[in-house]
Design a protein that fits this description.
- With 306 residues, this protein is of the alpha/beta class.
- It contains 14 helices and nine strands.
- It has a single domain, classed as 2-enoyl-CoA Hydratase, Chain A, domain 1 (Alpha-Beta Complex).
- It has a six-stranded mixed β-sheet, sandwiched between helices. The protein has a three-stranded mixed β-sheet with strand order 5-7-8.
- Helix 3 packs across helix 12 and helix 13 crosses helix 14.
- It is globular and about 60 Å long.
Length: 306
């Protein structure tokens, strides 16, 4: 019988999320702790994110939560090998896709449903700040865009590689339209190109861009300023914002996006088109990444505007 990936436990490996609290300042910090892999996360590590956010949400000593990545990057998103193998019935069985219903259940629990990391972040009752340096890609781009604030280093890059794997994604479409506008949302989703820090600032994705060596200081200053507010005013205000976003369709699209995400993973591709899953099954993860890089050679994700 097939096993849900988010229920797997890998014994002996370091925790993905490091959690610390400054009780005096009422600030929690959650750090993605996998710098040797660009802080990418697999399904079980996504559930660690959920538990860390819930812990901060339940902590009476916390008003503000800062999310950060260890090392040079915020995160490159999901582990690509997991993406390729998640569409198989079980590890090692590459000839047969998981059923659509199976994947919908898995994605709702692990990623985009009410109990997944995406909506857990968006609905966190505490004020959330993403402290972003380097790559902010994939699921962690979605996590950051769901934060109340983003403070970016001047070397930050934002996008979701999945836009080039399966196209526009519905689960956070309304959120991005409201943040950066319909025109820019369509541009990044239909082209898959990245935004550098300055362009992200200009379109309204981030609140502030600072030199890399000032990133921690500026993020802490913002967190401490917010934490001066009364706790009740922050919590009630946050809920008002969440209700307003739900009225504008964020919640409905997030739920529907789970279903369409699964359908997009099972799309048909023509011989001259790129399909990450198909290439990965035949040649492995490295071959899939090389084919993807070659396909988009004229527009790599990490090229900044002149």
């Amino acid at each position: 019988m097939a096993q849900y990936n988010y229920k797997r436990v890998v014994p002996g490996r370091p925790p993905y999320c490091l959690y610390e609290v400054d009780k005096e300042k009422k600030i929690a910090r959650i750090t993605w702790n996998k710098p040797d892999k660009l802080n990418t996360a697999d399904a079980e590590e996504n559930m660690q994110i959920v538990r860390a956010i819930q812990k901060a949400g339940d902590d009476p000593d916390v008003k503000v939560v800062i999310f950060k990545g260890a090392g040079k990057h915020f995160s490159a998103g999901a582990d690509v090998s997991m993406i390729i193998h998640d569409d198989t019935l079980r590890p090692g069985e590459l000839e047969r896709q998981r059923s659509q219903g199976f994947r919908i259940v898995e994605l709702r629990q692990n990623a985009y449903g009410r109990r997944g990391y995406n909506q857990t972040m968006h609905n966190c009752p505490k004020i959330t700040i993403a402290q972003v340096q380097g790559y902010c890609y994939g699921g962690h781009f979605q996590l950051a865009s769901g934060c109340d604030f983003i403070v970016a280093a001047d070397n930050a890059m934002f996008t979701h590689p999945g836009y080039r794997y399966i196209g526009p994604m519905g689960e956070d479409m309304v959120m991005l339209i409201l943040k950066i506008g319909l025109t820019m949302t369509k541009e990044i989703m239909f082209t898959g190109r990245g935004l550098d820090a300055q362009e992200a600032l200009e379109c309204g994705l981030v609140n502030k861009v600072v030199p890399l060596d000032k990133l921690e200081e500026e993020t802490n200053n913002l967190a401490e300023l917010v934490a001066l507010q009364a706790a009740d005013s922050l919590y009630i205000g946050k809920q008002n914002f969440n209700i307003a976003l739900s009225i504008m369709g964020k919640q409905t699209m997030a739920t529907m996006g789970t279903n369409t995400h699964v359908l997009a993973h099972m799309m048909r591709s023509e011989p001259d088109e790129f399909n990450l899953i198909a290439v990965g099954r035949k040649g492995g993860t490295k071959a899939a990444l090389e084919a993807n890089k070659e396909r988009w050679r004229s527009s790599p994700l990490n090229v900044r505007k002149a």
